[in-house]
Amino acid sequence: MFYIGECPSCGGGNLGIRLCSETRKDLMVLCDECDACWLTVDITLRPIFPAQPELPCPICTASLHSDSSRWATKDEVNQRGWLEFVKGEGEAL
Questions:
Q1: Separation of alpha carbons 69 and 37, rounded Å
Q2: Residue 1 CB: number of other CB atoms within 10 A?
Q3: How far apart are the first and last CA of the chain?
Q4: Most-buried pick from 32, 39, 40, 83 (CB within 10 A)?
Q5: What's the domain count of the chain?
Q6: Which secondary-structure segment (H or E) carries 37?
Q7: Nearest-CA neighbor of 70 among 6, 24, 8, 13?
Q8: How many CA atoms lie within 13 A of 4 on its CB side?
Q9: Pairing state between β 14-19 and 2-6
Q10: Three-class SS of residue 21?
Q11: How far are the Cα atoms of 31, 35, 37, 53, 84 from residue 49, in angstroms, in the given order?
């Protein structure tokens, strides 16, 4: 998982870059601990909290827990122009 920092909402999770689905290719920032979500790398904005337990994508409503949703690859992050915001790579909590 490529992450851009620590979650300002919960203070304990990593903010990973998540791919909504293989068909839509939407990227978002998602806390791997509290599931706070941003549609941009600007985490000073108010986060979205998708409904538990399915975590519907705020863009297309597909579940962020589905098999087609996953952490974005380096190429996908780079294509979006977000690579410069990446602080590191690691495992989700």
A1: 14
A2: 18
A3: 10
A4: 32
A5: 1
A6: strand 37-38
A7: 24
A8: 27
A9: antiparallel
A10: coil
A11: 10, 6, 6, 11, 25
> What residues pair up with 2 in beta bridges, in sequence order?
89
Q: Which two tokens stand for residue 26?
A: 């939407």
d(CA 77, CA 89): 12
Residues 6 or more apart from 20 whose CB is under 8 A from it?
26, 27, 28, 57, 59, 60, 62, 64, 69
Structure tokens at 31: 């806390």
Q: What is the pLDDT of residues 4-62, one digit of tens each?
A: 999 999 999 999 999 987 667 789 999 999 999 999 999 999 999 999 998 999 998 98
Residue with tokens 């977000």: 82
What tokens does 48 get? Answer: 């979205």
Residue 2 one-letter amino acid: F
- Altogether, the residues listed in the chain come to a count of 93
Tell me which DSSP letter residue 67 carries: T
